[in-house]
Amino acid sequence: MSGGWNTIESDAGVFTYLLQNLGAKDVQFEELISLDSESLRQQSPVYGVIFLFKYPTDEKPSDKPKDGTFDHDAAENIFFAAQTIQNACGTQALLSVLLNKDGDIDIGAPLRDFKDFTTAFPADLRGEALSNSDLIRETHNSFARSSPFVDETQRTATEDDDVYHFIAYTPINGKLYELDGLQPAPISHGDCSFEEFPDKVIPVLQRRIERYPVTEIRFNLLAMVRDLRIKAREIGDVEWLQREEQKRTSWQWENALRRHNFIGFVGELMKGVVKQKIKEGTYDQWVEEAKTKTRTRYEERRKKGVADDI
C-alpha cells in the first residue's frame, strides 16, 4: 500500500471487520434498508450510525449549519477530529462513534492509547494525528478495492465527478451530535438519551435527504450495534446464530476478494471465449445478443430508478 488513504465501500462487512482489525470487540455494523425508527430500534443497542451521501461540492462554508447548531465547546470535550486528508472520511466517521463510546464498547488497547494521546489536542491536530496513524491508515487501506487502473491517492476529482462523504450521528452526554470532519465543530441536534437515539436521529436524516432532488437515491446508512451473535446466544436462537455466523463467513470471503484484482484472469478468459466463438462462426451473433441483453438490463434499472454506483 502507498502512504496515502484509499477509498473504501459503504458496506457492513467492510466496516465490521474494520472495527475488529482495529481492536474493538463485540460490536458490528448492520445496513439499514428502510429509514424508520422501528427498524433502527430493532438493532438495539445502537451506538450510532454512519451516513453516506453525495457531497455538494458547490456548497460554500457557513457560520451556521443548515440543520442543528454548532457546539464549539463540545469539540474539546468529546472525540471530534477535523478531516485533514482525502478518502479518510469512512474510517473517521467510524472512529467518531467508536471513540465516543469507550466504556460502553471495548475499543481495544491500540485505539485507547490513540484516544488518550489525542485527548488534549484541538480538532485539527486530532485530524492530523489520525491521518498519520500507521495502524489506522494501514487497516483502512486493507479494505480498499484492488485496481490496476486508478491510484486513488493520486486521483484528482473534477467538477463532473460524483463525490461521496461519510458522517456520523451518535448520542453523547445527553445530546444528539452530527460529527463531520469537514465542519468546524460538532453539530448538536438537541437533547437525546441513548434510548431515544433511534427516534431522534431518523427525522434528522430525513430532513437531510429532503434537501436533494427526489431522483437522488444514492444514500447508505450503517448502524453500529452490539455483535448480533451475542444477542442470538443470549436468547438461545440457534437458527439466528447460524445465520449470523454464515454472514460473517460471507463477509470474510468478500473482503478477501477486495484485496485482489482479476483483470488479468478475466482478460485471458475472454480471449479464450472470443477465440472459440470465432472458430465456431458465432462471434457476431454472440456480440449482438450481449448488446441486446445489456440494453434490456439498463432500461429495467432505469425504470426502477436504481443507481449504477454508490
Would you write up a description of this structure?
Helix content is 45%, strand content 14%. The model is unreliable at 147-158 and 306-310 (pLDDT under 50). Strands 1-7-2-4-5-6-3 form a 7-stranded antiparallel β-sheet, with helices on both faces. The longest helix is centred in the C-terminal third of the chain and has 22 residues, at 283-304. By secondary structure, the protein is α+β, with helices and mostly antiparallel strands. It has 12 helices and 7 strands. The protein folds into 2 domains: 12-258, Ubiquitin C-terminal Hydrolase UCH-l3; 264-304. Helix 1 packs across helix 10 (238-258) and helix 9 runs antiparallel to helix 10. Pfam families: Peptidase_C12, UCH_C. Keywords: Hydrolase, Protease, Thiol protease, Ubl conjugation pathway. It is an enzyme of class 3 (hydrolase).
